[in-house]
């Protein structure tokens, strides 16, 4: 079985400090992998390397069997990998639907540019995007809010909108960076149900960075714990939770 994602020896330094240190990491199709560890462990930087936002100083990345080292985010999206981004401020005034439509335009940018001089094709593409955007909004239970400006959503609803923007890319690997952080408990539960459903019914593979240990325990079939830029432990939740090094570095603090 070809892993969805394979990182080998990824390393990133910022002005002499090694923030991600020789990290190897794989994700099999259909898995939900939890990535956790103390603040400053290098989790977000690892996501930036996996999603092409940062280029590694060393190491390789393979996505769906294709060498993806040093590819920019839009090329990784075409290979099937996307990550959530915090909603950009300037999009606050656009409606929820427009935010989702825009995610598709960014992703199909080239083909749409090609269609610019063919108005009928453009109209058709726009209609297809709008239909797909409405399907995605329905999936994340935001249909009733499609005309509201994004700024009017609650924190948790904004996270659902970020996820909706990811889903527009029709990627099969989705990286979520602290999607439950600062979200009201009932919406955290809704997000967890949605992730499980996207995994089981839509075949999506997830890597989720999360501090909320209950969220990880509930969702992840495999857990990777990072500390000081390195992988400290990996395996089932119970396996890593019982690892003395993990208990010492992190889970011990949370318990
Ligand atoms: N662009 C950057 N320039 C310099 N240092 C950075 C940069 N991004 C992150 N760091 C540092 O790298 C370390 C890991 O950060 P980060 O990947 O955000 O950790 P985590 O997501 O696990 O909390 C931290 O010490 C942080 O200060
Ligand atoms: Mg982080």
Automatic annotation (TrEMBL):
PROSITE patterns cross-referenced by the UniProt entry: ABC_TRANSPORTER_1, ABC_TRANSPORTER_2
Gene3D superfamilies given in the database record: P-loop containing nucleotide triphosphate hydrolases (3.40.50.300)
Entry's Gene Ontology molecular function annotations: ATP binding
Domain ABC transporter span(s) in chain numbering: 5-253
Keywords, in A-Z order: ATP-binding, Nucleotide-binding, Transport
Pfam families, A to Z: ABC_tran (PF00005), BCA_ABC_TP_C (PF12399)
InterPro entries: AAA+_ATPase, ABC_AA/LPS_Transport, ABC_transporter-like_ATP-bd, ABC_transporter-like_CS, BCA_ABC_TP_C, P-loop_NTPase
Record bears the keyword Calcium: no
Residue ranges of the TM segments: none
Function: Involved in beta-(1-->2)glucan export. Transmembrane domains (TMD) form a pore in the inner membrane and the ATP-binding domain (NBD) is responsible for energy generation.
Family statement: Belongs to the ABC transporter superfamily.
Name of the protein in question: ABC transporter ATP-binding protein
């Amino acid at each position: 079985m070809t892993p969805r994602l394979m990182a080998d020896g990824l390393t990133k330094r910022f002005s002499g400090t090694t923030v991600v240190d020789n990290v190897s990491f794989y994700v099999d199709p259909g898995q939900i992998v939890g990535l956790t560890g103390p603040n400053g462990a290098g989790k977000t930087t690892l996501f930036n390397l996996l999603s092409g936002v940062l280029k590694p100083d060393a190491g390789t990345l393979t996505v769906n069997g294709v060498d993806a080292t040093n590819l920019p985010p839009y090329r990784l999206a075409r290979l099937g990998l996307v990550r959530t981004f915090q909603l950009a401020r300037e999009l606050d005034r656009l409606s929820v639907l427009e935010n989702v439509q825009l995610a598709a335009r960014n992703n199909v940018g080239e083909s749409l540019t090609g269609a610019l001089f063919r108005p009928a094709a453009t109209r058709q593409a726009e209609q297809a995007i709008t239909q797909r955007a409405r399907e995605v909004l329905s999936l994340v239970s935001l249909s009733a809010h499609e005309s509201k400006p994004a700024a009017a959503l609650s924190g948790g609803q904004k996270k659902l909108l970020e996820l909706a923007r990811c889903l527009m890319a029709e990627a099969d690997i989705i990286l979520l960076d602290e999607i439950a952080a600062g979200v009201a408990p009932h919406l955290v539960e809704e997000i967890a149900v949605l992730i499980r459903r996207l995994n089981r019914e839509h075949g999506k593979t997830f890597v989720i960075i999360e501090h909320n240990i209950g969220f990880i325990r509930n969702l992840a079939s495999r857990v990777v714990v990072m500390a000081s830029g390195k992988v400290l432990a990996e395996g089932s939740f119970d396996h890593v939770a019982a690892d003395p090094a993990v208990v010492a570095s992190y889970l011990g603090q949370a318990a």
